[in-house]
């Protein structure tokens, strides 16, 4: 009976290491502290990432565990897609009530492609640029990219890198930006609250907390609208990423890299002549 169980499910080293990392990270919990008008949130995922790297340098994790972890990660991403889907279902009626505003918000998120992709290619990034720029690189983005391109693809490396970067610095940036916009621009704080729900719980929490500190009399409205906006962004952003942002990123990458290659070839011909 045990022989029929796949090896990655019997890998006690891998499961013990994962369990230990989760217990340690969750026991530390979320650490938050203020930075000027903003707020910094350090999430358990950051500790888990650091502990996972540290595990690589111990006798516990060997080459077999690397191979098994790839299989397990691919399977768990399937559960992640299911979780995202469960969040989308209950939000359908809310999406209808809000109307075109939330859709326009998601189209605005295409700026990550239109601005980030050309810059990444200019800096010499290869196909990783597609994963890095087609979205804000949260959980749903990981599922989309790894499912389409595979776990070991450059696109997946790109989205994972931005996922980690956003987890560390995203909340800081959103917290500071929200407080600055609330303090020095005439924008309505409720509009800023809605804009803070880009699909990341940590970024939304940092942004809405900063807005609530600037407008304490509107704190309840700001928090509720930011939370609703985040749920809607997860629901609509998943489909925008699949059907609009990712195809656009791939098309732009091929066009820009082709032009870059043609320009380099032309420069080489001129030098040779």
Could you list some keywords that capture this structure?
273 residues, mainly alpha, two-stranded antiparallel sheet, 13 helices, globular
Overall tally of structural domains: 1
Strand order of the largest sheet: 1-2
- H-E order: HEEHHHHHHHHHHHH
Rg, rounded, reads 21 Å
Strand content: under 5%
Mean pLDDT across residues? 79
* Principal-axis shape: globular
Low-pLDDT stretches are none
Question: How far apart are the termini?
Answer: 72 Å
Helix count? 13
Overall structural class, as computed from helix and strand content, comes to mainly alpha
The main pleated sheet reads as: 2 strands, antiparallel
Number of strands: 2
- Helix content range of the residues, please? over 70%
Describe the structure.
The protein is mainly alpha-helical. It starts with 11 loop residues before the first helix and ends with a helix. The protein has helices at 12-28, 44-56, 63-88, 92-98, 100-108, 111-114, 116-122, 128-133, 139-149, 154-184, 189-195, 201-214, 219-272; strands at residues 31-35, 38-42. It has one domain (2-30, 39-265). Helix 5 (100-108) runs parallel beside helix 13.
């Amino acid at each position: 009976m045990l022989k029929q169980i796949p090896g990655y499910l019997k890998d006690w080293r891998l499961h013990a290491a994962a369990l230990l990392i989760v217990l340690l990270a969750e026991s530390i919990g979320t650490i938050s502290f203020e930075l000027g008008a903003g707020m910094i949130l350090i999430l358990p995922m950051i500790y888990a990432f650091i502990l996972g790297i540290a595990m690589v340098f111990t006798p516990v994790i060997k080459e077999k565990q690397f191979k098994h972890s790839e299989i397990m990660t691919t399977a768990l991403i399937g559960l992640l897609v299911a979780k995202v889907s469960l969040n989308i279902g209950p939000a359908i009626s809310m999406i209808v009530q809000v109307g075109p505003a939330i859709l326009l918000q998601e189209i605005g998120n295409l700026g990550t492609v239109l601005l980030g992709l050309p810059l990444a290619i200019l800096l010499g990034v290869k196909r990783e640029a597609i994963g890095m720029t087609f979205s804000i690189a949260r959980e749903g983005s990981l599922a989309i990219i790894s499912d389409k391109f595979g776990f070991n693809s450059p696109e997946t490396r790109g989205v994972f890198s931005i996922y980690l970067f956003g987890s560390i610095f995203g909340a800081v940036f959103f917290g500071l930006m929200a407080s600055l916009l609330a303090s020095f621009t005439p924008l309505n704080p409720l509009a800023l609250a809605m804009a803070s729900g880009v699909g990341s719980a940590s970024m939304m929490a940092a942004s809405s907390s900063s807005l609530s500190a600037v407008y304490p009399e509107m704190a309840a409205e700001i928090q509720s609208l930011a939370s609703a906006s985040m749920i809607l962004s997860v629901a609509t952003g998943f489909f925008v990423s699949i059907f609009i942002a990712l195809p656009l990123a791939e098309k732009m990458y091929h066009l820009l890299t082709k032009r870059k290659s043609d320009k380099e070839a032309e420069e080489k011909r001129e030098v040779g002549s």
